[in-house]
Design goal:
The chain is of the alpha/beta class and about 220 residues long. The protein is built from 8 helices and 6 strands, in the order αβαβαβααβααβαβ.
Length: about 220
C-alpha cells in the first residue's frame, strides 16, 4: 500500500482566525468591486423571450416561479397552457385567487397520446396560439407564459416560422416564457434566455407515480 501524497497547504492554512477573517473580507471586497463594474455596463431594459427546455423536470415549475414573482410586483400576467388544460394543477388553483392580475387559459386537451386525434390537436393548438397572440399584444400584460408550446411545435401542430416571426416582433416591453421539451433551434436562436433542464435522477424511473404537490 502506497502512501497518498499530502495535500498542498493553502494560503489560509497558516493564518490565524483573525488573519483569515481579514483575508476573506478583502477577497469579498474585490469580488464585489468586480461585480459592480460588470453591472455598471448592463444598462439595457427590455421584454425578454425566455425558453425552458430539456428532459429534466422543472421547466413549467420554474416558469410559474417567474409568474409568481411578477405578481409580487403587481404586474399583470397571462398564462396559456397548450397541453395541460385537462389537468387540475396546484399552481392554477393559486393563480385563480388573483383574477385582477392573472388571466389563465387552459386550452390543451392533454398529451397527444391521450387524445390520439391529430385534427383535434391541431385545432386546440391553433386556438391556444391565437389566444397567446392576443395576450402578448395587449399592452396591459407585462408577462405571458406559453406553457408546453414546445410540444406543439415539436409535432408541427403550429408552423414554426409563424411562431418565430411573431415572437421576434413581439412588443418590446413584454416578457414571454415558452416551456416544453425539444425546443426548436429556430426558437432558441431568437430567445434572450434559454435554460436546459438536465435529468440526473428521477423518482418515476424507480416506480414512483406523479404526486400531488410535486408534479401537479
Amino acid at each position: 500500500m502506497t502512501d497518498l501524497p499530502e495535500k498542498p497547504l493553502k494560503k489560509t492554512d497558516l493564518m490565524s482566525e483573525a488573519e483569515r477573517d481579514a483575508y476573506h473580507a478583502e477577497k469579498m471586497k474585490k469580488k464585489r468591486e468586480a461585480r459592480n463594474r460588470i453591472l455598471a455596463t448592463k444598462t439595457q431594459e427590455k421584454g425578454l423571450l425566455i425558453v425552458h427546455t430539456g428532459k429534466g423536470k422543472g421547466k413549467s415549475t420554474a416558469a410559474f416561479g417567474m409568474v409568481f414573482r411578477a405578481l409580487g410586483h403587481g404586474f399583470k400576467v397571462g398564462v396559456v397552457q397548450f397541453v395541460k388544460g385537462v389537468w387540475e394543477t396546484g399552481e392554477r388553483d393559486v393563480l385563480l385567487k388573483f383574477p385582477e392580475l392573472v388571466t389563465i387559459n387552459a386550452m390543451g386537451e392533454g398529451f397527444t397520446w391521450d387524445v390520439a386525434d391529430r385534427q383535434r390537436d391541431l385545432a386546440a393548438a391553433r386556438r391556444a396560439w391565437e389566444q397567446a397572440k392576443s395576450l402578448i399584444l395587449d399592452p396591459s400584460y407585462k408577462m405571458v407564459l406559453l406553457d408546453e408550446l414546445n410540444i406543439c411545435l415539436r409535432y408541427d401542430y403550429l408552423p414554426i416560422d409563424e411562431v418565430v416571426e411573431f415572437l421576434r416582433n413581439k412588443p418590446a416591453g413584454t416578457h414571454v416564457i415558452v416551456t416544453g421539451r425539444n425546443a426548436k433551434d429556430e426558437l432558441i436562436e431568437i430567445a434572450d434566455l434559454v435554460t436546459e433542464m438536465t435529468e440526473i435522477k428521477h423518482h418515476f424511473r424507480a416506480g414512483v407515480k406523479a404526486q400531488t404537490g410535486i408534479e401537479f
